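FORM 7B - TANDEM STRUCTURE REPORT

SECTION 1: FIRST PROTEIN
SEQUENCE AND TOKENS:
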Amino acid sequence: MSEAAIIPGVAVPMALVARQDTFGGLRRGDSLTGDLVVRDGRAVGLRPGVAAGRLILPKLAEVHCHLDKCHTIARVEETGTRIGGNLRHAIAAQEHDKQHWTRKDLRARMARGLAECAAAGCAVVRSHVDWSQPGPVLPLAWEVLLELAPEQPLDLQIAALCGIDQLAEPGMANVLAGAIAPNRGVLGAFVLDQPHRLAGIRAAFAAADRHGLALDFHVDEGLDPGLDGLSLIVDVALETGFQGPVLCGHGCALSLLQGDDLARLADRMARAGIALAVLPSTNLYLQGRGAGANRPRGLAPLHALRERGVRVVIGTDNVRDAFMPLGRHDPVWALSLACLAAHLDPPMGQWLPAVTTDARAALGLAPVTVDGARLVDLVAVETASTADLLAHPPPAQALNDLKMDMIA
């Protein structure tokens, strides 16, 4: 029999355990508690032990951020550009800042963002990179991220971000897909109210299928009546039977749907296997501005979508730039904000899959649950409950750094 060890006094959220019936432990609230048994470098179960003093989680997944834009807010403010007006104002302000995007500038800011992700306990990060002129030449920000990737203690996915109308141009989606395929890029686009959006969506699906790429859409990031990008994406996914992962971000216009209309779209999303990334910080900051106490805030209806079988995940999105002047790269912080904005009620552990297991699945990766996981894929946080975790996220610790007691 191989040697085993224990990490004493832990709690494991039940939502992050695949086989609760065999994992062991004493149930306390939404977690299982005890001493974590480690065998051959893997967490195999819980045995009776001391009171829990730390939570054990799978490493986090950051499903949606913009490392090319992060930490530019001070520079944007110095120009006197309007900040916070709406999405289009933010796009214009950030576009103006691109004159400063040198290799040195991008490397410093993006390395800072990646360091924040690592400190938060992320195992994988998907960053979107602006691709203003889709073509065979990689943007400078993409090149710099590829240079930074080998230096990181996490996996990095890079998604191209251009207008869906650009992909509607003949052959353009295939050219872009061919450019990013060698470095396992993700094919993405911004879908709002462009006149040729359906043609662009069809071209994106065809190119992703041809090159074996995942798809990621910024879609319906607004509250204007009639936004239908998400519905069109679902239509094309169902028509084509596309087998790759499809992640849609934002979906602000979903907050305008009610009753049967919302249920029908949610059912089709679930059938197509399309996941939705809810991004509370940027959407709360930019959407729904104006007079009136009852204006929608632009947050997709998490409860209703989840109840219909849609995989709903939560991401950080913009950090300290023209789209969101605050924030940090930390999915738990984003989840905490979602709890306030979307009325996510206790037990809080039930929402942790949105930044761990479900988040990995939305990125096309195999989910990691605590039971059976390698220690390198787990983190510990010094807090006694899931509510405490979300109230004030403490630093994440690698399990390999924790003291273990050998047992027979």
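SECTION 2: SECOND PROTEIN
SEQUENCE AND TOKENS:
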Amino acid sequence: MTAKLTAAMVVMDGGGDRPVPELGGLTPLQAAKTPNFDRLASQGQSGLMHVISPGVTPGSDTAHLALFGYDPVSTYPGRGPLEALGAGLQSRPGDVAFRANFATMNPDFTVIDRRAGREFTSEEGAALQKALDGLDIDGVKVHFVHTVEHRGALVLEGKGLSEKITDVDPHEDGKKILQAEPLVPEARKTADVVNRLIRLSYERLRGLDVNKARQKRGIAPANVLLLRGPGQHREVATLKERFGIRCAVLAGGALYIGTAKYVGMDHVKVQGQTGTIDTNFDGIADKAIECIEGGYDYVFIHIKATDNASHDHNVKQKILAIERTDKMVGRILDKVRDRVVIAVTADHTTPVTVGEHTCDPVPIVIWAPFLRPDSSKRFTEIDAARGALHTIRGMDVLPTLLGYAGKTEKFGS
């Protein structure tokens, strides 16, 4: 009988890439120094992964549902509820949740800066949150929380709500905030509440002392709230219910935390874990070791810095993020090598030459002390194409890890 191990997955957000002219036609993974990833590749099994399906460009939210073993077509509730869960808000069936961000606009509702300068102190965020959280609009309760920088999450709680409305966010500076419109007749109430909320946010935020102080410092005021990505919470079977496993997520972004909570994972906080290149890689490794030694059956580790670098077209920083993640994985394996089955992969490809998600499959390597190794020697998009895993779906990765970890029962007699 296979010894019971802990399954672990490390995801470098947007880690897949294409050949980069600046690197002489290499991908960032090929250019990076990754001795730990390469050791996993030479001793384990590699392949390419279509996170959702061939030709489909994954969003970060749907990609993670697939990596957690769920069909995103049938289980995706929209991004809003996942952001809300990750931000610490309760999102229940019937509520409508949104991604939210502070913006700067003119009195004619033309957006000047969709991110209101991006820079926010925790004190500023708390003051802005206080002005909006708890509002009541026609019997609909507003729950709002500021998360990081200009970002937040918002939940509408009330009867007769629907997520089937259009966005108010114009998605570009220099354009006017849009009117929410119902996509189905029963969504009229929700659209009206959202339109009133946007105007009310301007009335309540524009005169706050915190915004006056920001303007004095030459920083854009956060004088309106933009909402997008409406969705309604759905009930799905948790990973505990499906597989009987205890799961932990180590992530710094609300979306990834929320998606993990949605499927029943415990959020294990790491001091200094952020979405930036300066995230606490050593702290993440140490907490992962603690989770593995503490009896978790599955540990999911998310690194955002690779994706940020890709969106910024910053190839040097992407290579740095890859190399720091490689060291983090080495730190984990130094302590618990004989106790884990580990996968290293990405949730989607974000080429630094493009700056956006694309449909290209991503490399994946799976390692365990007893795996039959294939002929791959490095962890790259090119080497992975020759690996024993061939082409695998995102939904199949977690069951594969759990099978190798001895967490699943035999099928049949």
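SECTION 3: OBSERVATIONS ON SECOND PROTEIN
Residues 6-77+235-404 form a domain with the Alkaline Phosphatase, subunit A fold (CATH 3.40.720.10).
Residues 281 and 324 are 7 Å apart (CA to CA).

SECTION 4: SIGNATURE
Preparer initials: ____
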